[in-house]
Predict the structure.
Amino acid sequence: MALRVCRRFFRDWAVLSRGLVVSDQKEPAQWLLTTGNASCCCRRINWFTFNPACSFTSDAFVSNLLKGSIAEAENRHYRLPNSVPPGTGEQMALLLKHPDQPEHSKVLKVAIIGSPNAGKSTLSNQLLGRKVFAVSTKVHTTRKRALGVLTEDDTQIILLDTPGLTTPSKVKRHQLEKSLLLDPWRTVTEADLIVVMVDVSDRWMCRRLDFEVLKCLARHPSIPAVLVLNKVDEVKVKDKLLDVTAELTCGVVNGQKLRIRPVIKPSLVGRRPGRDREESQDQDAAEPGDAADGDEYALSKEQLKTLMSQKGWPHFKDVFMLSSLDKEDVGTLKHYLMSAAKSGTWQYHSEVLTDQSPEEMCINMIREKLLENLPQEVPYSLTQSIEFWDTDGKGQLNILVKIHTKKETHMRMVIGTSGQMIARIAQETSEQLTSIFLRQVKLRLSVKMQK
């Protein structure tokens, strides 16, 4: 077992280095510290400079690091990220194009799951090197499963971005699309590796895995899983991360026990009254989630009862601590995924970036801006339809999208004072689509009341 520490963040964190003990081993634990291009492996350390993202990793990956595989990767010449064709026909032709197989091709399918707003789409965008998936600070930005393809050298990583795991009762209560309930479950069955994301900045949710996440892991115990603690930059008390790790892993990582020995008295973490009761009610209502695709994986009542008493999952292969907004942090996870890829046939041509159609991406980016700029429940009640889509003689993509609303008050909010709000949303979306399609995009928005 080794602790891998990468990236600058804050210094002289002696508490963390002395606070982690890997027990039940004859030899003292080995620690691997990576700072910039230098790395060292030592039997004992009294202090170190902590530079997250950090992770608990398997010996196999540590061996690859020591052999210099990552140093070699940093010196390779990567091609620029791919773009998305501006037409549905072009995108479909690219998706159907025969994969260009290198001599020793490797592939890995990664399903990224977690609670709503954990940062799954942000992480996927950073791994791809270009914004492909819509992101906002509100929940349920991602409404259905989408695919991103990262191709470098002889390795292809297929990222399966999923909606946040939720329950049938919440889908019914908030009148959400059925895809939010079914797509995450279906996606996991395709994966070679599961990445479970947890928002550690949420003090109420970071102390235990979401019950739907636990059910998903329990239904597919043969698929390797890694835990990603996201938004560590927002956690002020850094030694809390070790406590959270111990709880979410049940004190076991890669089959080895962890024991956290606090050096400084931890700060008291309050609990919101009635929180456990609310979670239990949601968990009881969540059992129909097993009716999602694949009855052969359905859990028994005894298994569900056992899961309800668990805070975490004791079978995580590795643990990462990072901020999905930081490229260096995400680069650590990216190298890990590259090293985990196995020999296999590529499923997509190296020029493919996503399986989303251009129209889908346009609608998703508009939804993102609506979520970010409009208050509360307003953006969730809006729908969009594309009225015009064409490329002119100068190569500029011209798009007209109509936003449909059910309330006059919502329509006034979308338009804003003197049309400022709808103009801002159109401008921000146009800039994002220009980056995605690598051509000038002019987007016009209109609003219509639904009768």
